[in-house]
Amino acid sequence: MKKPQKHAELIKAWADGAEIEFYDTRFKDPCWKACGASPWWQDEVMYRVKPVFHTVLMDVTMGCAFPKNPIRLVFDSKTGKLELVEVL
Q1: CA distances, 8 to each of 5, 60, 78 (Å)
Q2: Residue 32 and residue 74 share a domain
Q3: Does residue 8 sit in the same domain as residue 40?
């Protein structure tokens, strides 16, 4: 049986309309960047579905909804797991 393409899952997600980002360590300042309309799908480059950002306003000290100390929660769009908590 033929081995599937390395990025097959992400290619399918892209074909279904997902926004894809890439991370290439060969760049001077590597970071996640938008692929645009046509990703190249290179084996040495990492790809991901662009994370969905949800901003939740809550008081960090009290733990209740309050716009005093807003934070941003970033969830992985595929797994739904929390990736990042950021104080705004």
Answers
A1: 5, 40, 15
A2: no
A3: yes
